[in-house]
Amino acid sequence: MNARNDSLPKTNAALMARRTAALPRGVGQAHPLFAQRADNAEIWDVEGRRWIDFCAGIAVVNTGHCHPKVMAAAHAQLDKFTHTCFQVMAYAPYVELCERLNAAAPGATPKKSFLVNSGAEAVENAVKIARAATGRPGVIAFGGGFHGRTMFGMALTGKVAPYKIKFGPFPGEIFHVPFPHALHGVSEDDSIDAIERLFKYSIEASRVGAIIIEPVLGEGGYVPAPLGFLKRLRALCDEHGILLIVDEVQTGIARCGKLFATEHYGIEPDIVTLAKGLGGGMTVSAVVGKAEIMDAADPGGLGSTYAGNPVAVAAALAVLDVVAEEGLCARSTALGETMRKRFSAMKTRFASIAEVRGLGAMTAVEFCRDGDPKQPAADIATALKDEAAKRGLLLLTCGTYGNVLRVMVPLTLSDGVLDEGMDIIEQSLQAIGA
Ligand SMILES: Cc1ncc(COP(=O)(O)O)c(C=O)c1O
Q1: Which CATH code for domain 71-325?
Q2: What is the pLDDT of residues 140-168, one digit of tens each?
Q3: Whose CA is nearest to atom 10 of ligand 1?
Q4: Could you tell me the pLDDT band of residue 9, with boundaries at 50, 70 and 90?
Q5: Ligand 1 neighbourhood includes 214 CB (under 6 angstroms)
Q6: Which of 30, 102, 141, 353 could be 347's S-S partner, Cβ–Cβ 3.0 to 4.6 Å?
Q7: pLDDT-above-70 percentage for the chain
């Protein structure tokens, strides 16, 4: 492996040229950089430059890059075996991880879980199970929602560019309603009314199997659902025999100050999807749900060759330990409060900050020209990302209009690195004249 690495160029620019020639343009990249090594909230690129990481691999390394306990667990499993295919010959840690997720998932109803490989795959399976359990085809999702790049994930996603362009037609019987967001004039009532109207205009409630929602829109702009909204959705689902799927791929594993963001909302979902933070950087996702519903699919209907990879499962078990031992839910809450306090202070200085929001550490700043929500300013968000990169900080944007800075710090980062990154953001806003 070393010999092969040694033959590769040592500069980001040369590697970008090779990448551009070798990969299709559809695989995006936020920063023209190549990683060499990483530690907690810092990454060093192939040129030896240090970067502060406020992206965490898109909200994945909640326990920090290369957490010693997670690494040790993965290494130990590597030395035993790396693959049997769980459906051929099982292994105990997979079962233990499911048991722990079942015990931790919101609500008192007995749960069952199984593992797959990515967020999109978890979402696909959640919908399969909902259809099997209800015998109903329809699925309602939200504008601004993101559920992955597989065919059904794309279809559920409520953001056309760049996720759906050129890829249709999509599977049928999927309907979108607006996600409540006061800044853009959509109230909880508007969202509920839109669902009620769907039942009149497009599909009868008795043919809808599931409503899927992110408790906090991820790609759609880090917009937390109002605290009462999930209760109203729960009631509406119960009234019509519809299952409620909560997509916690991005919000889960302490990102929002609880193991499951749903815990903030005081409801019990029928099915929950998890991915990202679960493996601490290793590839594993999960579908967790009410046992009776999860058992609706027949034997052989669920699974995949690589699902629940033993090394990733070992890492995930260590992640759950680290989250508990290091109090990362409380840390996430505290980080969110600190960041939003600083961003709120920045809002008084920079006219283009229209809103500061978030839940736990999931924190966002939305930019609009002169703070006017009718004039989303993607150029300001992008300029901030680029200016911060000049100063050594990795940031990402998101949002329906691409005008949102989303902060996804590893929850293990030190106060010193947090301050360093926040200072860079403030200096960058000043530099770009935000
Ligand atoms: C809420 C949500 N669901 C699903 C996905 C898809 O996950 P993956 O990229 O692992 O397929 C994402 C990814 O960002 C996500 O944020």
Answers
A1: 3.40.640.10
A2: 999 999 999 999 999 999 999 999 999 99
A3: 119
A4: confident
A5: yes
A6: 353
A7: 99
pTM, two decimals, is 0.97
> For residue 375, what are the CA distances in angstroms to 179, 354, 370, 391, 401?
19, 10, 8, 28, 10
In the CATH scheme, what is the code of domain 2-60+327-432? 3.90.1150.10
Question: What is the atom index within ligand 1 of the atom nearest the CA of 276?
Answer: 10
Indicate the pLDDT class of residue 1, thresholds 50, 70 and 90: very low
pLDDT at 19 over 50: yes
126: CA distance to ligand 1 center in Å?
A: 13
| 24 phi-psi bin (left φ>0, alpha ψ -120 to 50, beta other) | beta
Q: Where are the domains of the chain?
A: 2-60+327-432, 71-325
Residue 148 Cβ contacting ligand 1 at under 6 Å: yes
- The answer on pLDDT for 8 being more than 90 is no
Return the amino acid letter for 58: I
